[in-house]
Amino acid sequence: MPIKAPKSKEFEYEPVPEDNHIGICYAVVDLGFHENDYMGNVTTQRKLRLSWILPNTAMEKGDLAGKPFSVSKEYTFSMTPKANLFKDMRNWIGAKLSDTELQEIDFEGLLGVPAMVNVVHKESQRGNIYAVVAGVSRVPKGIEVPALEEIPDIEPLAFSLESEAWEEELRVLPEWLQEKINPIPPHVEEEDFDIEF
What we know:
The chain is mainly beta and about 200 residues long. About 10% of the residues lie in helices and about 30% in strands.
């Protein structure tokens, strides 16, 4: 009986179109601790993932055709003035806030907040096109944005490792998202943390 390698399933990735889209924040996820290697200098950084649904867009391919695109951006979880997260928050919600007030914001409060999400395309080393969030800013006055609750099949999601129940909350997240979250800083032994998975 011949033994042949299985054929890989073809998945046609459909990138979010390049544009300055109206978006609504629907997910704020603390990704925990991750190593960053920059020119041989390895550091540990806390990461945060923000996600927006783009209600005025529609996918054209596959089982999700007709549904709006969503897009995410992962940040170093830092609100120092030079940090990308601080800069995006300043442009998005912080025009009238002092630096100190902006640094004290509760990120869970971003759920349901509209934004202009600037999406651009980049090309991978393999020649594939993918979408990235180049910047986030506030929605100009006069532009109507639907409430998050009005968008079908979208549930707001907030996850923080600072929550007392974070272990239980982690278990109910989608598996792909659980795999992105690292609650234990690199080089720290698991037995030093009281975690049960």
